[in-house]
Fold:
Amino acid sequence: MLNYRKGLKDMPSYDVVDRPWTIKVNANECNMNMSPLVEERVMTRLSRVAFNRYPNEEYDDLRDQIAKNFGLARNNVLIGNGSSEIIEKLFHCFGGSKSHKIVYPQPSFSMYAIYAKAAEAEGVPVDLAEDYSLDLDTFIAAVRDAKASLAVICNPNNPTGNALSLDQVEYLAQSISCAFLLDEAYIEFYGQSAYRLLKKYPNLIVARTFSKAYGLASCRVGYMLADRKVIEMTDKSFMPYHMNVLSLVTADICYQMRQDFVPHIQIMVSERKRMYEELKKIKELTVYPSETNFILVHYDRANELNDMLEASGIGVRNFSNAPRLGNCLRISMGRREENDTWLKLIRDFVDGRR
Ligand SMILES: *Cc1c(COP(=O)(O)O)cnc(C)c1O
Structure:
């Protein structure tokens, strides 16, 4: 018997069905590879990499660039292997014992519960309302009652798609005195980032990613913005040189060229609006409003619908077994013709033609 650490055997895995889908709309990825112009600059930059050196300069260059964009300093920025690493480390830093409670809404990003467990902290899920809205005072009360060490909100929320307004976020920031992590993985599709609140609320932490709107999921790059003391403490939990140079320079170029990504983000948003209206016409479905690049749909026969889509080579995310998400499917926005394809299949299935 191998002597693994306590609790490891019962740790859930991140379950996602992955196959070579014809249309892959299950992971909220960007549906297009980088533009030729961006790719050309990335390749040129990659050809000049100092492979023999630890990537210190490249790490700081990206931090500086991000800091400048937000009117912050280098020591307000920490870069991670995807925002996943950032979130996992934050849970680690504010967890460590059952008396350290981490409060997050439910349903939300499924990894929060897993990271809380991994950090040996006590996860405290707060139920969203029937329509998946968050009652702010209920959340604040839960944070206070638990004497939480970390409160987490995903805004806009994955997988429900809805968002809090900036005023609502500020109301939370005002009322929460522990560390308060805002996971802004989908913020580019919504536009109302809370980063401006960072100076006023030093307990606020904003996590961002290059994986979604910037289409850089393969590189695993995310970052957090926070008070320099929070960065300094959190940084202790990362390995030295935890970012590799290939990802750093690629993200650096993409960030320099971020204006180049705006038209595509706008197309995704208009596709989401179009598909929302189209899906709403199918009266058997409950379609949830979204501020992201995906839409959550409830349908009584969601599992059968998912099977049919899978058999047709279309991968969506089936949440049927997750708490509070029974019979729900989450569909990421693909390219226009991809969206037309899955929409037609869903229509035909609901109408009994499949
Ligand atoms: C995708 C996602 C992330 C993390 O993405 P990374 O690829 O690790 O940067 C974090 N939070 C939410 C809610 C997400 O959906």
Observations:
- The chain has a mean pLDDT of 96.
- The chain is about 35% helix and 15% strand.
